[in-house]
Design goal:
Layout: E1 10-11, E2 28-31, E3 34-40, H1 54-71, E4 79-86, H2 92-100, E5 109-114, E6 125-132
Helix pairs in contact: 1-2
C-alpha cells in the first residue's frame, strides 16, 4: 500500500483575475518554488473579450499575470519562461511592445508561436508563464495555461 502524502501544491488566486469554472483548470498553482500560470487571455470580469488589437489584449493579459504572480509572493522579475500564442504573427511587435512594458533587464526565456485559433475568434493573444524563486522562497509560484 502506497503511503499517503500531503499535497505540496498550493492554488493561488487574485481578486483581479476571474477564476475559471470549477472542474476546468486553475489559473495559478505553486509547487516546489515554481509558480505555473495558466494560459491567460484578455477576458474581462464581465466575461467579454477586451476590445482592441494585440497590444491591448497583451497589456490586459500581462496585468492579470502580474496580479497572480504577486498574489503568489513574487514579482515579474521572477518570471523565467514566457510562451506567447498569437493568431497573426505579423502583429508580434504589438505583443513585444506590451512585454517590454512589464519586463526589464534579463528578459525571460520566450517562445512565440502562431496558431490557427485560440479560445474564441476575438482572442488574438494567449500567454503562459513559469515563475521561479530560490528554495528560500516560502510561497512557490505558478504557470499559466488552460484558456488557450
Amino acid at each position: 500500500m502506497a503511503a499517503q502524502t500531503t499535497s505540496r501544491i498550493r492554488k493561488v488566486t487574485s481578486p483581479e483575475v476571474p477564476e475559471p469554472a470549477p472542474g476546468t483548470w486553475s489559473n495559478c498553482l505553486v509547487v516546489n518554488g515554481v509558480a505555473y500560470v495558466a494560459g491567460m487571455i484578455a477576458r474581462g470580469k464581465d466575461g467579454k473579450i477586451v476590445d482592441g488589437d494585440e497590444y491591448e489584449q497583451a497589456k490586459d493579459i500581462f496585468a492579470k499575470i502580474r496580479n497572480l504572480v504577486e498574489a503568489a509572493g513574487g514579482t515579474m522579475a521572477d518570471v523565467v519562461k514566457v510562451s506567447i500564442f498569437v493568431t497573426d504573427i505579423r502583429q508580434r511587435e504589438k505583443v513585444w511592445r506590451a512585454r517590454r512594458e512589464v519586463f526589464s533587464g534579463d528578459f525571460p526565456a520566450s517562445t512565440l508561436v502562431q496558431v490557427a485559433a485560440l479560445a474564441e475568434p476575438s482572442v488574438k493573444v494567449c500567454v503562459t508563464v513559469w515563475v521561479s524563486r530560490s528554495s528560500s522562497f516560502a510561497h512557490s509560484l505558478s504557470v499559466v495555461s488552460g484558456l488557450c
